[in-house]
Amino acid sequence: MRKLFVPPWHRLMVGELFPALEYRSVNRQLLPVWLLLGLGLGLRFANLLGKPVWLDEAFTLFHISGFQPQAAVTNLVTGLPVTVADLLQYQQPQVAHSLGQTIRNIAETAPELPPLYFALLHRWMQLFGGGVWAMRFLSAIISLAVFPTVYWLCIELFGLPIVGWYSMALIAVSPFHLNIAQEIRPYSLWSVCFLVASALFLRAQRRESWRDWVGFSGAVLVGMYTHLFMLLPWLIYWLHSLLRAKLQLTRAFKQFVVVNGFIVAGFIPWLWFGFLMPRGGREAVFAKPFDSSLGLIKGLMQGVGRFFVDFSLNETSPRWGLLLYGLCVLAVLGLAGYSLIYVARHGPRRTRSFIWLMGLLPISLFIVSDLLLNASRTSFTRYYTPSVIVIEIAIAYCMAAKQTFRFQSSAIKPRWEKRWLALLLVGTLSCGWFILMPTWWSKTKTAANLCIVETTSSAAASVIVTDEFYMRSLALAHQLKPTVAFQFYPLKSKTAPSLTPTVQSTFLYMPSPQFLKAMRGRYQLRSVCQPALWKVDAIKE
């Protein structure tokens, strides 16, 4: 009977740690993995233009332009017509603004977003243009590196290639990973940095090689300059090192402390420039409060579940659909909990603490901080991406073990094979639904953009009046015809401007309650894209 090929450098590890592993019938179990891996790779490049640019992507591109937020407000909020071409200047690199100016603006206005991804995207746009397809293509390319790096991390954790294959399959059909692979955001790059840093961390601990430790420090620094929350995995590296060394100064722990000195020294410039220098005008981050503790837990459960199954359901969806989705989420969460326990009981001793700490501690810190600060970071699934990646790896290990380990009863293996195929099936269906949908639940405020584009395009020339935050108009401008113009007014305006509405062309876009009341007092309004767009029909007599 054919055996699974194990690379020579892993055979010793497999033989020492996993004498109970059997390689029989692995080809049959890996066949759906290989098929879904190919499907997942292809889906990352499918329909890159299918979804409208949303608010976070518009923020990313605004930072690339090098404009100061206050300068944009001064130039735009004048009540004068602003063309689509004028708006898109705030979404492209400008000759007058260097990359250094872009980095300075990020440090002054959004220091929680380190500049590495923005610098990379800035250079990419200079080489390949600023089209939405080209910019999302960069994220799709970066996302491909997740597959070999998660395989590498699985080898370092378990020494089992089959776990690496199973993990790649889960990520290939994960709707969350597909989503971030098609966004102009840094989360795919952050995922790669985390996986590389974790693999090098475990390898350096095992081999006690300075070369591996130097590579680890470089990967952590790149991750920190990609996303500030790389500090959380870095904290886990410290805790795992302390537990592994049993609070003693072992050779590996001394090496770890030394290279972390370089990590701290390398990140101090951004901490100083972005956070410690006195500077005003920053906006509060994570200011949105949560509704209740129950709502916080519900958001967390949905967030973790959406890594595996997501059909973009919301409160307006049919009840039967919400019920089925809820059952799927509960099943996935139950499987995740069981897998973590299974790793704790049967996984290699040297990696159990890593799986548990990385999988649970960052999420727990988010929950505690949200309860203390009345914030809502837990609802943002992307913030604890490393934790759920580790949970995905734990599930992959459990599934592979249940189907291939000799000490497992032959009666239970078919049942676990069915559960494994069911998990892959719901992920595949979720990814297919994501590709087909014109927008997604996480971008609800852009859902009306499709209607707005169709409505404004039907007129020869349209004017859109708004007192909404200008960033939403920047996102909308990517889909509008060049003949459309905007007129911006201060936030929460209580005075209706003097307009000359025509039957064909004047619209009111996402007005504040105060501005809507003022406009209704002076003009006849008709809702055309509820609740985002009103048609200004005529002046009231």
Automatic annotation (TrEMBL):
Keyword hit for Transferase: yes
Keyword Transferase: yes
Keywords annotated in UniProt: Cell membrane, Glycosyltransferase, Membrane, Transferase, Transmembrane, Transmembrane helix
Residue ranges occupied by any Glycosyltransferase RgtA/B/C/D-like domain in the UniProt entry: 114-272
Gene Ontology CC: plasma membrane
Its membrane topology: Multi-pass membrane protein
Residue ranges crossing the lipid bilayer per the database entry: 133-152, 158-180, 187-204, 216-240, 252-273, 322-343, 355-375, 381-400, 420-441
BP terms from Gene Ontology: lipopolysaccharide biosynthetic process
GO MF annotation list: pentosyltransferase activity
Cell location: Cell membrane
Domain of life: Bacteria
Name recorded for this polypeptide: Glycosyltransferase family 39 protein
